[in-house]
Amino acid sequence: MSAVKLEKKVAALEKRLQDEMHAALEPLALRLDKLEEHLRHVARPLDWVESVESIPQDPQAKFEGESGMAILPQPTGEEKETKEVKETRKEKDKSDKSDKDVMMYFTKLQVDNWTKDEPPKRAKDGAPEIGQVDGDEEPIPFAETIWNVVLVLGHSGAGWADVMVAFALTVLGTLMQIIFVSVLLQDSFLGDQVEKKVEAARQWRAGSAHDVKHMDLALTSLVSRVCSGDGSLILSTGQADLIAEINSFLGIQDGGLVPAMVPPGTTLCMLCIGLWCVVLGGEFRAIATSLVAAAHIPRSKRTIMDKGSFVSISYLRFGSYLLFRLARTAVAACLLIAGTQWLARTSSISDLILNAVALEAILQIDELIFVALYPKKVQTAIYELEPVQIRYTRRSGQLESCLMLFLLATAVSVPFFLWVKPITDMMLTVKVEYCGGDQDFVVSLNQDMQMYMGWETVPYENVSSQLLGQLAVSEHSQRRLFNGTVPQYISFALSLDTFESNRVKSMQAAASSFPFCLDYDNLTGVLLDNYGAFFRAIAVQLGRSNATSCAELAEFCNDLGARLLRMVCGRTCRCADPLALPWFKVPNQGCPAVCRAEALVAAAALPCTSANTTENFQKFWSMYPMVMSSFIGQDLMSSPEGPKIAKLMEIMSVLGCQGLPVIGSNNMVTGDSWCGGSETFYSPLALICPQECGCTGGDSMPAYCSDSCQACGDITVFPVNPVASNCAEAKASGVCDVPSEAAALCPETCGLCNGTANVSAVCLDGHIPPELLSMDCLQVQALGWCPPLVLLGSPISRVCSKSCGLCT
């Protein structure tokens, strides 16, 4: 109730109490006046008093002090009534009648007070006693709203303009609420259906989530960062915000998929829906009570009002009011459905409170229009409407309470099972589609092969500031440079063209352009500054960020992923040693081209003999499955050919260099020559096994053979030289210590010609030449060597075609 109406009610109540009190005291004042007048005209006051004292006491008599009245003496039969006594009796009768009226009035007031303040007394059988009523009367006021305008039209004193404005505002308020309801029920306002979000999550996960282009400097995938709540995202921020809302709504920890036992979003959503149902319940209850109040007003052909109170209401006005109430009920029901659905489909906890407040504002549109815009005359008339007294019995009160509780429980539970629970379950499905399964991998399309290639990325929880990408940017952005001037981990280009070239430069190109076959710690000046970032970068990647020399990283030289280390530490990684482990001693794997050139020169100074028992040759074959598995992208040993590969390794561990002509000339995986080497993975095995690779002198030796295996001799005409005139003098002067000079001038004197004989490659059907293998075909079959030899196309398999099952 507004303050204005409250003041009016208090003033009316005060005036009513004054009128009632005046009406109650008026008979008493009149009686006192008459009594005083009578006493002034009595001739014998003493006789009057004596006659009063002689009156016998009547239990029903009322004396002064009890009711404020005195009883005149009644004359006996023996007394002779005088004229004055007759007049006195007439006055007494009038006074008695007035006294009875006053006592009936106070008795009625007392009964009314008992009815209001005390529960009715019951008889033994539980029924109300005589004179008591089962129930209380409650005033039902008419709300200050546009919907009650029909009650006061024609009784408000408003002009036709005010009436038209009042009707227009009533229609406007109704239309505004209807428009709000229609907007709330539109899918465009409620947002996409959760089912559409599931499909969008699937498309995002299958599309850009694992694209290698979106992998960051920490080598983590986009989906891993989005699902872990990475705050530094510049891509897929919409997906990240949606996942954050779902996590907050369901109480899921970042990166998890299990909701809380009591999801906070679901709880708050049901509280808001319950509050909205309570608000609408109050509205429906107000509509129902106003209809009951209107129904209690007597109906007639005309509406009669007395100072805001209805004496009667016309049938037309009552019917119009009923239609208005039904229209209000329909609007409130639509608001209940639309508001509940809107709250149920709100996935943001912060938006839930705002939406609940917004719904309350929509519901109060009619009251706001009434207060702000309604004509004053009509406003005042509605303010002054008196409440209608309605009697509520105990039974009707209990029935109403049970009905309200049932309707509230229904209004809350139906939205839960109809919208809230399915939407909550669907939210969890969306989260699973976004973040379920393996997150830590990226893929890229090889256009030439029309095949997607994949790589396992770093899990987001393992990311630290020590990862190279983040460390490089962080150190340079904070100007923590090496020695205060040189970039720590970034190789800066001098021009944009050089930068673009360096971005796509291959390791082979970089190793081929590396100027010296020197270790990083042996470089000086500008070279040290330029290539220092390379060394520090690979040290961080290998987990040795404090390393300052190549010797500290020597143990990683033969690792598949240490290409950059082999480039900046060529000497330590033995890229210039012709007898070193052949794996990765090529520019494609980081060894500088100048180091490989030195290795060939050094091989020319070595005897042209095989090293069958070298540790590096044995290690070469033990690493073969691992390196080839990385080449084909799957575990070679778990393939169907795995057992044959294992036999191949057994053959080479037993035969050594002699096994090269046995297993065939080419690598079955890459197709490269064993003896000639591979530009991608290994240097020529001919430097370790020259004889088995056909490096036996003569003019037809393969190009991969060392110069020491060439048919050679000292030059016949020694060049003019003040130090030496022949090879003997040249050897004494140290020419043999210079490989290039020794090979060009005096290879025989310097021991570079060993005169090895040509190895026969004659193969007799059914007989293994002893030069190839010192065993027969039965032994080859017994050892289980036939399958890998057949796979490799070995000449031994053709010689032992019968034993190896190749004969038809």
TrEMBL record:
Signal peptide interval: none
Assigned keywords, A-Z: Membrane, Transmembrane, Transmembrane helix
Region of interest (Disordered), ranges: 69-98, 115-135
Coiled-coil segments on the chain, per record: none
Transmembrane segments: 163-185, 401-420
Segments of skewed composition (Basic and acidic residues): 77-98, 115-127
Protein name, as recorded: ShKT domain-containing protein
Annotated organism of origin: Cladocopium goreaui
